Amino acid sequence: MGNFLVYLGSFGLSFVSQAGGMFLLLVTTLSLTFKPPYRVRHLFKQMEFVGVNSLIVVVLTALFSGMVIAFQSYRALSKFGGESLLGGLVALSMVRELGPVLTSLMVTARAGSAMAAELGTMRVTEQIDALQVMAVHPVHYLVVPRFWAAVLMVPLLTVIADAVGIAGGYLVGVMLLKVDAGIFVERMRDMVEWIDISSGIYKAFVFGGLLALIGCYKGYNASGGAEGVGRATTEAVVIASVAILVGDYILTSLLF
Amino acid sequence: MVELVDLHKSFGEQKVLTGVNLKISRGSLTFIMGRSGTGKSVLLKHIIGLLKPDRGKIIIDGQDVTEYSEAQWQRLRRRFGFLFQEGALFDSMTVAENVAFPLIEHTSLSWREIEKRVQEKLSVVGLLEDRDKYPAELSGGMRKRAALARALALDPEIILFDEPTTGLDPILQVSIMRLIRDTQRQFGLTGIVVTHDVSIAMKAADFIAVLHEGQIVAFGPPEEIRGSPHPFVKQFLQSAFEGCLPEEGSHV
Ligand SMILES: Nc1ncnc2c1ncn2[C@@H]1O[C@H](COP(=O)(O)OP(=O)(O)OP(=O)(O)O)[C@@H](O)[C@H]1O
Ligand SMILES: [Mg+2]
């Protein structure tokens, strides 16, 4: 019992100190964003890395999720003759939830982990110290471009995921399960409002910032050689994934 | 110029620096010597603000910089050239890009001028051929020389070099040390160099400081150090000059 309390206490302390550290990193990142020199090339490079290179996984995940939802929903809907709602249901699930959440999780796995590994390696090989010694602010050089690349690219990828997911639902619903194409599209138009789409995109902004911040924080504060970099990478992925899901609940219940 | 007053630093339980006092005058070249693991690198990192002392003061040009903020340090650091013991080259950049980095960051030189400077710095450390290689493709000694070229790129006023010649062959050791000495003389730089090589230090140094058990136990010009009565300094120099492999069957 005592041990458990000690464990709980140290967990609580580390949670608070890490959350504090991440908040501080966020403040530093935001305040350095508009400080010259503007590293536009770095930003584009990171946008390519976060966005373009994640495209295939995001498309695949969204496509199959859309297809699965169509199958599952069809089974449920057909019990009371509601097949006509299929299009709306698939689209709503995609744009409100699955689009932003799945995209963010995929980008976390691909790019968030890479940010932690890259910065972690730079930390343990003193490359971050080298930046500092050469009077270059490491957060300005390393974190700012990564943060903004994720904040910009995750919403963009989300829009693509939304579209691809709906296409997947259409594929299964219309081609396979023979729901009338006109009804599928019509119902989708009726049921999905602009706010559904925009709420998903707002979420994606937040998740993008979150995953970059956590990845960068973990890498930036890595220590202990190769093993430490590995630990930082794993923790970045786990924490960012949990944060995205918890954040999703909070955003959904608060805002929409 | 650079003054350390009663500097203390511990990592957890381990006391590394226990009252370092050192005064380095402008335009002089000082060598810091001492056994492996005594805290020479730690000492050097304090002078450029990478580590903060637990106690004591760091004074640069009469200014107490101990409590400087990161922004203040940033301004100050532009005057420094720092060589990390392990080089700390950016592994995502080629040798030439590494050397160009500080120039791109801190000067408004044109590409052509930067290219010229890079060329010049790489040729003095003998790495012109390898300019387009990545750090992972270099040998240890080449990495060190590339890092040296980067540290010199901005023509700093104060150079802090952590073992610039360790891991180089004897010919390179001499030529790199000559390069450091010549640059320092020519531009009147203030230099602090950590080294294990006693004979090179004896030849090149204006002053030698010996770090032992967390303190500077001897400081002075080479001749003075050579005659130092301090038992550790004596032993250190003796091993360096008369050092040969132990006789067969004997143990250290
Ligand atoms: N960041 C750190 N965290 C914990 N301990 C450290 C850290 N940096 C250095 N130390 C410890 O401080 C001591 C001095 O290290 P330092 O690197 O300064 O030695 P050194 O004199 O440069 O040795 P060498 O000649 O082998 O390079 C060592 O015992 C090392 O374990
Ligand atoms: Mg050292």
In short:
Chain A has nine helices and no strands.
How is this structure best described in words?
The complex is a heterodimer of chains A (256) and B (252). With 256 residues, chain A is mainly alpha-helical. Chain A has one domain. Chain A has nine helices and no strands. Chain A has helices at residues 2-33, 40-50, 55-78, 86-124, 127-133, 138-176, 181-191, 194-220, 225-255. In chain A, helix 2 packs parallel to helix 6 (138-176), helix 3 (55-78) packs parallel to helix 6 and helix 4 packs across helix 7 (181-191). In chain B, helix 3 packs parallel to helix 5 and helix 4 (111-124) crosses helix 5. In chain B, strands 6-7-8-3-9-10 form a six-stranded mixed beta sheet, with helices on both faces. Chain B contains nine helices and ten strands. Chain B is globular, with a radius of gyration of 19 Å. The model of chain B has no long low-confidence stretch (mean pLDDT 89). In chain B, a hairpin with a 2-residue loop joins strand 4 and strand 5 (63-64). Chain B is α/β, with parallel strands linked by helices. Helix content of chain B is 38%, strand content 24%. Chain B has one domain (2-93, 157-242): P-loop containing nucleotide triphosphate hydrolases (Rossmann fold, 3-Layer(aba) Sandwich), CATH 3.40.50. Bound molecules: adenosine-5'-triphosphate (ATP) and magnesium ion (MG). Residues 40-41, 85, 162 of chain B line the site of magnesium ion (MG). Adenosine-5'-triphosphate is lined by residues 11, 16, 34, 36-42, 85 of chain B.
SSE blueprint and pairings:
The complex is a heterodimer of chains A (256) and B (252).
Chain A: H1 2-33, H2 40-50, H3 55-78, H4 86-124, H5 127-133, H6 138-176, H7 181-191, H8 194-220, H9 225-255
Helix pairs in contact in A: 1-6, 2-6, 3-4, 3-6, 4-6, 4-7, 4-8, 4-9, 6-8, 8-9
Chain B: E1 2-11, E2 14-24, E3 29-34, H1 40-47, E4 55-60, E5 63-64, H2 70-77, E6 80-83, H3 95-106, H4 111-124, H5 140-152, E7 158-162, H6 170-187, E8 190-194, H7 198-204, E9 207-212, E10 215-220, H8 222-226, H9 231-242
Parallel strand pairs in B: 3-8, 3-9, 6-7, 7-8
Antiparallel strand pairs in B: 1-2, 1-4, 4-5, 9-10
Helix pairs in contact in B: 3-4, 3-5, 4-5
Bound molecules: adenosine-5'-triphosphate (ATP) and magnesium ion.
Adenosine-5'-triphosphate (ATP) is lined by residues 11, 16, 34, 36-42, 85 of chain B.
